[in-house]
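Entry
Fold in token form

___
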Amino acid sequence: MSSPSSGPASGPTSHASTEPLNQPMNQVLAHHHLATISTQQEEDFPHQDNPHSHIPEATSIAHDEKPWRKRTSSRLQGARTRLGLHPTAPIEEEHDSAEHQELLWSKIRLILREPLAEFFGVFILVLFGDGSVAQVQLSVGQTTAPGGNGFGNYQSISWGWGLGTMLGIYVAGDSGAYLNPAITFANCYFRQLPWRRFPMYFAAQFLGGFAASGVVYANYINAIDNVEGYGVRTVPPAPNATAGIFCTYPQPFLTKASQCMSEFITSTILMFVIFALKDEGHNGVSKGGGNWFPLALFFLIFGLGACFGWETGYAINTARDFGPRLMSYIVGYGTEVWSAGGYYFWIPIAMSFAGCFFGAFLYDLAIYTGPSPVNTPWMGLKQIFRPDLAVKARVKRNREFSDPDRMV
């Protein structure tokens, strides 16, 4: 950021030339120094979850330059606030003040920037994940494949979900790339992500999974007909069932308790490791995970699939399971998508939230030393049983740090 006194000592664009000629030079310099500090102080406390909040505002414009344009997003703050988002969109200042941001779609894109990022992040995740399951399952027995028995195996599915997660995080960087309602919920409770964002993020994540599974179905519809028969759609444990391409179904021998345990364990591991990777005070990783975080998530998801994926399909994500399940119901798989496995459909929803919450709690209890409900009297139980006190405490903390983005 250039200070107001960074121009030449004289000339038509010099701020110093506006000072009285008889004013001592040291007072002139002090005046500009204070102005510079005043401007910098506004930038020393950026909003923590706004990836571009560190970008300085323009402080001066030379007379021979094009006049500065007001940031388009600053005029959309009301709409963004009503949606529960941060008033300022995470966007480069140069882009924000460009002329094309006055177009209708540009304004809509700025208003919905984070939800669109979450939508397409989950879209990519499910596109690769469901696509890998479809290719492996629908090509079984294909003698034209290398090896003579289909295009892929179980590890191909682990690769697909791992790659989808990694690429989805890259796509959704401007929103925080949560890509999972349970992870979003855990961050709201344990890391002070504003609660007002949860409904919008949840909706975007759900719709992203729903839309992506529809694309996979449209792409593989002829292959599904080839395996099941034209217009036939069945659900596991039917012999040729293809509903498992889109959402998870348990092995038929599992009890209800085992179904819950499998999903709870995988969700706990997922959240525990994510908090470890994002812990800036953890010496085992780069600060906050850095650019290695998406790659680390690839290995995490691959490992969960390789080690815990067989029994229930390791859904660990409501957006990736419930959205595609609803899509499969709509395209003709019938009510069995809900009743299969003893009405198993609710377990990936409930256990993903329970497991991620417990994983976050366990990490903060055992390792994390930063601000957390666990690092308060009674280990945060008061926030559960007295949420009104939790709201008051958060508002008080927000006022102390003068950070409107962390308001409840």
About this structure: The chain is about 55% helix and 0% strand. Residues 59-111 form one domain.
